[in-house]
Amino acid sequence: MTTSEDPTTLEQLLDRIRDRSRDDVTVTVEGVMESVGPRSFGPILILAGLIVLAPLIGDIPGVPTLIALLVLLTVGQIAVQRDHIWLPSWLARRHMSRDKLVRGTEWLRKPARFIDRLARPRLTYLVTGPGLYVMVTCCIIIALAMPAFELIPFSANGAGLAFVTFGLAIIARDGVIGMVALLVMVISVGSVIRALL
User: Secondary structure of the chain in the HEC alphabet?
Assistant: First the structure.
């Protein structure tokens, strides 16, 4: 669910995050969400994934679980068809260093540009209507599993990649990327389950 002013590419999303935080020493979750748009469910999934993927940010203990809470709140509100994302104040006020956020977004710029060239509307029935709710369910599964991902080094990166691809599939209405996201989810969750058994 997006508006005409919502970012429609990963690079636009990174630009918004960088520009919004330019004059701040620290950046709050609420501030970052405002930069991508409070109605932007797809971009917020991408943002969550990028934070988990970014070096210096996603490796901080507790960050993946915090991001899982953000995702659960986001996709849960998609499920009940809210048109505006609400966050509790204790989560909205959590903050991180602006320098780390900007360095992380700059590191992600090149892969984002590559992915943006691949995304376009395809097999849209997989990412709209019932297909959207399948993706919502998958994101909930990943988010619920996120504390377990923190127990295994670097495994949270797979969850972050899944969030990014699900979010990109939603904003680009690209069912092919949606299928890639499903594959990433199965591999990531499967590898964590195998490692824990």
Answer: CCCCCCCCCHHHHHHHHHHHCCCCCEEEHHHHHHHHCCCCHHHHHHHHHHHHHCCCCCCCCCHHHHHHHHHHHHHHHHHCCCCCCCCCHHHHCCEEEHHHHHHHHHHHHHHHHHHHHHCCCECHHHCCCHHHHHHHHHHHHHHHHHHHHCCCCCCHHHHHHHHHHHHHHHHHCEHHHHHHHHHHHHHHHHHHHHHHC
Name 139's Cβ contacts closer than 8 Å, sequence gap at least 6. 45, 71, 75, 162, 163, 166
CB atoms inside a 10 Å sphere around CB 13 = 30
Q: In degrees rounded to 5, what are phi and psi of residue 25? A: -85, -40
pTM metric for this prediction: 0.71
* Domain positions in the chain: 10-196
- The predicted-structure confidence for 131-175, as pLDDT tens digits, reads as follows 888 888 888 888 888 888 777 777 778 888 888 889 888 888 889
Tell me how far apart the alpha carbons of residues 12 and 129 are, in angstroms, rounded to a whole number: 25
